[in-house]
Structures are given as C-alpha cells and as structure tokens.
Amino acid sequence: MNDLFIKKIYIDWSKVTFDNYLYHIEALKNLNELTFEKPITFFVGENGTGKSTLLEAIAIAYGLNPEGGSRNYSFSTYDTHSSLYKGIRLSKSVHKPKWSYFLRAESFYNVATKEMDYADIGHPSEKYHEQSHGESFLSLVQKQLNSYGLYLLDEPEAALSPQRQLTLLMEIYNSAKQGAQFIIATHSPILLGIPDAQILSFDDGIIHECTYEETGSYKIVEMYINNKDRLLNQLFKDE
After folding, report:
1. Mean pLDDT throughout 97-111?
2. Three-state secondary structure along 20-74?
3. Percent of the chain whose pLDDT exceeds 90
4. pLDDT tens-digit map of 24-44
5. pLDDT per residue over 54-103, tens digit each?
6. Engineering a disulfide at 131: which of 101, 135, 157, 161 sits with its beta carbon 3.0 to 4.6 angstroms away?
C-alpha cells in the first residue's frame, strides 16, 4: 500500500458551530474518525448524504481553496462551505505530496477564470474557456496530475462523456500506481470501476465500506440497462 498523504481524519465536533445543518446529515453527525486504506477512495451515496460536504472540509483543512484549485489559489466568489473543516484534524504521512489540488465540478468555471488571472510569462494560461466544457475539464485534470500528488475531486464526471470518463479513469489509476492519492466524491459507475479502490458509502445513515456492485450508481444503471422498457413503462404509467 502507498504511504498515503492523508491516512485518517478526526472530527472534534466541539469546534463546529452548533446551529448548523451538519447536525442533520445522518452520515456525518455521528462521525468521529475515518481511515483511508487505499490510494484511491471513493465517496458514494445519494444526493444530500454529505459526500461533498466532507470532501470540501478535508480540502480546506489541508489548506486548499474552498472553491477549488491548488494551495496557491486564494479567491471566493460566494462562500457556501460549512464550518466542518474547523473540527477536522488530519493524520498525515511524514512525506509531503509534490502537488495538491481540489477540483469540484460546480465551481470549475471560477477556477478556470482564476487560472487566467494568475497566469504570467513564466506560467502562461491554458485558456480553458476557449475549449468545450468537457475538454477543458479533462485538460485541467490532466495538467494537474502528478505521480506524487494529492487530489480531491468532487463529481469529476459531471462534464465528461462516458468515453472521457474512461480516459479519466486511466489517468487516475496510473497516477495512483505511481504514488498519488485520490479522494473522490462521485456518482459515476464508470469511475467506480477502478480496480482495488476503497468505496465508502454515505447511504443508510452511516459511512461504511461497500463493493462496486453494492453502490447505488451501479444498481440503478444495471437495472435500467437490463430492464429499460419495463422500467420506463412503469414510470410513465405512474404519471
């Protein structure tokens, strides 16, 4: 197993604002610690179960910008992050990553814009806004990946076609083999298929490990593909 850059997180709830929606998220409110066991960890679960909230808090606790980017990014277009990061303590490796990056689909436009603002003669802009959304998103990921880096990705599949998701799958897998660590919140049954990844489900009110076939993403897609006509007929009938 790789010497993971983030081995474990601890949460001191006394440091988190009491009057906070976090206490209404079942999977999070009783969470005191979480261990990462593989170079690639997926957070899975239904919308609203706390995946992105926890990923964001870990990123901020590590020193990354809440809206995304590297440690060098410092901007805010609209503060929406929770106070969870205030209670998080990270158990880290003695080894530091060569690079770290937080990428979230919902604020990618803002990060791409800031990339232009931060550009200079020595670091020319990649001009992500001149590419399609999917192309620019994948291009940014590929540009940032380092064989000894730490990456937190929030729903990276959102802008990508199935083919491009397969490309991203290979990029993540190969980088992890070379020493990188990934923590990824996703609904993609394609990305979740990466071999030997740790999958943590936020469903059922508690964070727990599950297999690929046990994820809701896999079950729904399998059910739809194998029973498309019957499922659609039932849905339209209910209308």
Report:
1. 73
2. CHHHHCHHHHCCCEEECCCCEEEEECCCCCCHHHHHHHHHHHHCCCCCCECCCCC
3. 56
4. 899 998 899 999 999 999 999
5. 999 999 999 888 877 766 554 444 445 678 999 999 999 999 898 888 88
6. 135
Rounded alpha-carbon distances, angstroms, from residue 222 to 161, 203, 219, 238: 18, 19, 5, 21
Strands 88-92 and 6-11: antiparallel
List the structure tokens of 227: 């029973």
Give the three-state DSSP class for 1: coil
E-state strands within 117-196: 149-154, 181-185
Alpha carbons within 13 angstroms on the beta-carbon side of residue 109 total 3
Domain 6-211: CATH superfamily, name plus number = P-loop containing nucleotide triphosphate hydrolases (3.40.50.300)
CA atoms of 68 and 151, how far apart (whole Å) = 11
* Cβ–Cβ < 8 Å for 32, 181: no
Which among 116-125, 127-136, 207-216 has the top mean pLDDT?
Answer: 207-216
Contact 212, 199 (CB under 8 A): yes
Alpha-carbon 216 to chain mean position: 17
CA 18 to chain CA centroid, Å, is: 26
Domain ranges of the chain: 6-211
Q: Residues 179, 2: contact at Cβ < 8 Å?
A: yes
Question: How far apart, in whole angstroms, are the C-alpha atoms of residue 169 and residue 172?
Answer: 5
- Distances 71 to 59, 62, 83, 189, 208 between C-alpha atoms, Å: 10, 9, 19, 30, 30
